[in-house]
Amino acid sequence: MATRVAGSFLLSILACVLAVLLCACSTPSQTKVVKSLRPTQVVKAATYTGQNPPVPPVVNVRYMFASRPVGDSGLNRDIWRTCDETVLDLETLSRLHEAGLRIGVLSGQPPETLDILLREIPGTQLNGHELHIPSNRLTSIQLGTLGKCPPELAAAIGESDGKPTQPALLFKAVPTLQGDGSVELHVTPTVQYGNIERRYVPEFGPGGVRQWTFENKRKEHEFTELSFRVRLRSDQTLLLTCDPDRKNTLGWFFFVNTSESPPSQTLLVIQAFGAQD
After folding, report:
1. What pLDDT shows up at residue 7?
2. Residue 255 contacts residue 264 (beta carbons within 8 Å)
3. Full domain range(s) for residue 71
4. Whether the Cβ atoms of residue 172 and residue 187 lie closer than 8 Å to each other
5. Higher-pLDDT residue of 28, 184
6. Domain count, the chain
7. Which of 39-43, 75-79, 246-250 has the lowest mean pLDDT?
């Protein structure tokens, strides 16, 4: 009887030892499998503070067009008498001049001063637009669409063989609010053309590319060599038009409408200021 009890006792001890050994061997393997199934985002989530990213300040961009017959003295001379046409460096101004573009900054109390100057030109057509966009966000100001692409413009965008259809003329603008309350405008002349195509485009977040989405977009050509930056205070206004004596230049195509009789010339007027102003 004692022998049976001792044997049973030894078997129980061996069973307990075996169970402990099995648990010790299986636990690391199970832990490794669980970790391998965790998504990699868990590491990033652990460092998230729970606070939303800062909201960028809002910039107001106001723009309007004035249209007069090509070469009108009021649009090409009178309105420029109080403008500063030296707001850019000489190299940039030279490139813009060669492209038939004219730029200047008018100082005064907008919109009254600018409104008076424009309305002194009989028959001026005014058309205003206002945008409220985050600082450092891209926006576009479209001037119009050509029914047929001139050969000079087709060659300028590198599509002389493809005969680009329905070219849309626009200025891409990125307004950035500065510490002193002024707004820096980064402006790039751009031409969009051809049929609308569906493309993959990246959406960027704080850590880089957040996801890829579809976008319906036409082909476009940015004239980066004519891109410029100008800083505006809340009492300043940017004027843009062409030199009417430089025909068949980029400025001519952007600002002269030859489909009208007589052909008309456009003046683009831009104001930019912080939303708190």
Report:
1. 53
2. no
3. 58-274
4. yes
5. 184
6. 1
7. 39-43
Q: Report the C-alpha gap between 59 and 99 in whole angstroms.
A: 29
> What's the CA angle centered on 162, arms 157 and 165, to 5 degrees?
80
pTM score over 0.90: no
Q: Is residue 175 part of a domain?
A: yes
CA angle 110, 112, 115 (to 5 degrees): 100
Two tokens at 53? 């990213």
In a domain, 229, yes or no: yes
Q: Is residue 20 part of a domain?
A: no
3-state secondary structure the chain: CHHHHHHHHHHHHHHHHHHHHHHHHHHHHHHHHHHHHCCCHHHHHHHCCCCCCCCCCEEEEEEEEEEEECCCHHHHCHHHCCEECCCCCHHHHHHHHHCCEEEEEEECCCCHHHHHHHHCCCCCCCEEEEEEEECCCCEEEEEEECCCCCHHHHHHCCCCCCCCCCCEEEEEEEEEECCCCCEEEEEEEEEEEEEEEEEEEEEEECCEEEEEEEEEEEEEEECHHHCEEEEECCCEEEEEEECCCCCCCHHHHHHEECCCCCCEEEEEEEEEEECCC
**Residue 212 half-sphere exposure toward CB, CA atoms < 13 A:** 4
> Residue with structure tokens 């004692």?
2
Distance CA 101, CA 244 (A): 9
Phi, psi angle pair for 34, to nearest 5°: -60, -45
Cβ distance 141 to 147 under 8 Å? Answer: no
- Count of Cβ atoms closer than 10 Å to residue 273 Cβ: 21
pLDDT in tens, 240-275: 999 999 999 999 999 999 988 899 999 999 999 887
Whether the CB-CB separation of 215 and 199 falls below 8 Å is answered with yes
In a domain, 207, yes or no: yes
